[in-house]
Input
Amino acid sequence: MNFKFAFLFSLFFILNSCKDENEIRIVETKKDVQRKAVIFANINKAWIFNANPINATAKASTNTWAEWRHFLGELEHKPQKTIGAFQKKSAELSKKVMLLNNTIPLEFDKPQMKARIAMLITKVRMLDLYIHLSDIPYKKVVVLIPEINKELVSMQDQMDKIVQKSKIPLEEGESDLIKMLDSTRAIPNSPQFNPNTPRVE
Output
């Protein structure tokens, strides 16, 4: 009799503990779903990129610089419905932004332009990294989006400055002066021949 009572008590205890574990699991799942919903809502609200060129130079360069055009096109389309869609979009943006560095048009192939592209690449890749973490730091993602917009504006302003500067006519003799300042064209330093130097014969 004691054996049956002990068996029933332990069976009741096991079933009750399983029920408690299931309830805990259900509560944790609900919390996780709510947390993901908050993350999605915040990222979805902040995901606004300035994909339209801000000046005539940036707009004209979309005709000749295919990678720039593709990158802006990718920025223009906002993902919908899930965090997974934002993760795919950020991965695609990361690929497209890397191509900008490899295909800079000759007129923009200047150190100041390369620096701005490098900053844009860094910000977009950080966005891609953060959004792919298992526990997404959505506050960092939300902060990065306006920073990427700022880098886009800076890059387009630099494009315009380069084009405007190229339109300024050179003064007489300025092109010769530029050639003289070019260190790659300089005559290498070699020891000067001194006729008074003793020679060994």
Q: What stands out?
A: The helical segments are 2-46, 56-64, 66-76, 83-102, 111-131, 138-167, 174-181. The first helix runs from residue 2 to 46. The chain has a mean pLDDT of 78.
